[in-house]
Amino acid sequence: MFEGVSGPPSYVAMSLPLSGRRHAEAMASYRHLAMFGLMVSDSSRGSVHALGGRPIVRYDLVEADVARFRSGIARLEELFRAAGAREVHLPLPRGVAPAQARARDLKPMAFHPLGTARADARRTHGVVDADLQLHGVRGVHVADGSVVPSALGVNPQLTIMALATRLAFGLLGGAVPVPPTSTEEELACPS
Which amino acids are annotated catalytic? Predict the structure, then answer.
């Protein structure tokens, strides 16, 4: 999925795959830059291990995910060129075409980490239960993206807001309000 990105110059500066004079020239034209992100719902998995008492985080892209990135980057370039872009800065090392990109050429970033305190009715498979309460600890609830079991493939903002709203109403002892149907709205607000 492509997602338009807008942010302050510092955000653009850290995202550009350029350095030195080329980076300075691109930033001098900041008003004329457009950015899109490529969101990939990955099937790769990572792990955390201890080495000498320190955590080691490892995440290796599987070939299917590398292929998704190749395809997405190629389509983004095609889209920008069709829109009239004079220059396209791809998130790849200089001289590497999207079709030839390898896992080590990619620099994936995570903007919406999910699943670190995943919800599951089974305490052996999740951190919180269906009511978002910490397994085995009464009164401790989690209401953020960490309870979402896995990557959604889209921005999780609405999902997180819905979960937090559901939890808030549950803690207050009330049911989550159901929006009126269009027929009920028409009866309540005649034209």
Answer: 112
